[in-house]
Amino acid sequence: MASPAHLIVRGSILHFLQDPAQYPDAEAFQYLDDGYLWLADGIVQGTGNWQQLGEIPAAAREHATWADHSGQLILPGLVDTHMHYVQAGMIGSFGCRLLDWLNDYTFPAEAAFADPDVARVTAKFVIERLLAHGTTTASVFGSVHPQSVDAFMAEAAQRGLRMLCGKAMMDRYCPPEVRDTAEQSGRDSADLISRWHGKGRLRYTITPRFAPTSTPEQLGIAGELYRSKPDLHVQSHLAENDKEVAWVAELFPQQRDYLDVYEHFGLTGPRTIYGHCIHLTDREQAAMAASGTAAAFCPTSNLFLGSGMFDYHSVAGAGVRVGLATDVGGGTSLSMIRTLAEAYKVSQARHHPLSPMRGWYLATLGGARALYLDEVIGNFAPGREGDFIVLKLDATPELAFRMARARTLAERLFALTTLGDERCVAATYIMGQRAH
């Protein structure tokens, strides 16, 4: 058996062990101002202070590759819990609320993915940009076309990424060029599951776009698919827009509320996540918490489309798992740092400002927990996969000027949140291999 390939990285190490809002600092995170991160064959072996490097076995140190990022911040890779790669070409489209925006921009953009070349070009672009932004894992919507998922998964597999993706399921209230049937969506999804689920680090996620564009028959098939294997995921949308909520009530009058539609068809529970969740009732929050159903907080999209402001304090306080999400193309950037800045502003407007520690937890371990991937990614606990990023805290003159006056780690993290962007991402590593 070949000897393991060791990597020892020097820098300021930060990772989260628990939610900082619920645990004292000593239990919530580990910060090493001058520390090491040690990996073997891409898997985390441990962290420690640089002065205690002797804790690493001599044989590992002797044969290791070394990466010196002294003075820079090393974090686990960022986790985007809800985004549409097939909408990358329409970011920043002007002036609509959700339902009009879908018809005017989204559906025409996604229709182009009937062409496999469009899918391949877009998948390559989006994955390259995700890595440039420091995002190493994402829950990704394809279009209704199976080739959109094939293209994204092939690109992700080639780079050894931990990604989730699924084919959109839509069999009503959408143009013919982006519509399938209940039966066809089931067959296509089953084929994609057999082709991609569990290949390398990839997982498949069942993806009804949202309740209005699926018939009860299609939602029933989606629920059957979810139950067909013990580790499949589900993603969709929930309570994003007030008119959408009213429309769902008209289409499904027998159900108590929007979430109850998904509950009825068996689409809630572990490994299920719903984007937006702005207009939830108390019952829906309690039901999500009880079932383990997660919410994706999409601040840039929610503001851009005028949908409302997600109540992170209330939803997380109810016990719901919450992750942070760009929601490109309703969201206006692939940058999780920029998205985190908007999340702070939304929480501030709701009078429960997101602390810098909890914000970076949300972008790393919180996102991994929302996707039920925290046993493999999200922090630097031994045995976790070695995806991590290196952030340059003086990437712009404004940041450098502010950082020179920051007195604490929390101040530096908050300055990074509010002033940072992709220019701060000095390097992105996938399983210990530098990818950007």
- The rough form would be described as globular
- Summed up, the helix count is 16
Report the sheet-strand fraction.
Answer: 15-25%
Percent range of helical residues? 25-40%
Rounded mean pLDDT score: 97
The low-confidence parts are: none
Largest sheet: 9 strands, parallel
Rg over CA atoms, rounded to whole Å, is 21 Å
User: Pairing-aware structural class of the strands and helices?
Assistant: alpha/beta
Tell me the distance between the termini.
Answer: 30 Å
Number of strands: 16
Draw up the topology in text.
Blueprint: E1 6-16, H1 25-28, E2 29-40, E3 43-49, H2 58-63, E4 65-76, E5 78-84, H3 98-111, H4 116-132, E6 135-141, H5 146-158, E7 164-166, E8 168-169, H6 182-196, E9 203-208, H7 216-228, E10 233-238, H8 242-251, H9 258-264, E11 272-276, H10 282-291, E12 294-297, H11 299-304, H12 312-317, E13 322-324, H13 336-349, H14 356-370, E14 388-391, H15 397-403, H16 409-419, E15 425-430, E16 433-434
Helix pairs in contact: 4-5, 5-6, 6-7, 13-16, 14-16, 15-16
Pathway: Purine metabolism; guanine degradation; xanthine from guanine: step 1/1
Catalytic activity: guanine + H2O + H(+) = xanthine + NH4(+)
Organism: Silvimonas iriomotensis
List keywords for this structure.
436 residues; alpha/beta; 16 helices; 16 strands; 39% helix
Structure notes:
With 436 residues, the protein is an alpha/beta fold. 39% of the residues lie in helices and 22% in strands. The protein is built from 16 helices and 16 strands. It has helices at 25-28, 58-63, 98-111, 116-132, 146-158, 182-196, 216-228, 242-251, 258-264, 282-291, 299-304, 312-317, 336-349, 356-370, 397-403, 409-419, and strands spanning 6-16, 29-40, 43-49, 65-76, 78-84, 135-141, 164-166, 168-169, 203-208, 233-238, 272-276, 294-297, 322-324, 388-391, 425-430, 433-434. Strands 5, 6, 7, 8, 9, 10, 11, 12 and 13 form a nine-stranded parallel sheet that branches. A seven-stranded mixed sheet has the order 3-2-1-4-14-15-16. Strand 9, helix 7 and strand 10 (233-238) form a beta-alpha-beta unit. Helix 4 (116-132) packs across helix 5 (146-158), helix 13 (336-349) crosses helix 16 and helix 14 crosses helix 16 (409-419). The chain is globular and about 65 Å long. The two termini are 30 Å apart. The mean pLDDT is 97. Residues 74-433 form the Amidohydrolase-related domain. Its EC number is 3.5.4.3. Its cofactor is Zn(2+). Belongs to the metallo-dependent hydrolases superfamily. ATZ/TRZ family. It catalyses: guanine + H2O + H(+) = xanthine + NH4(+).
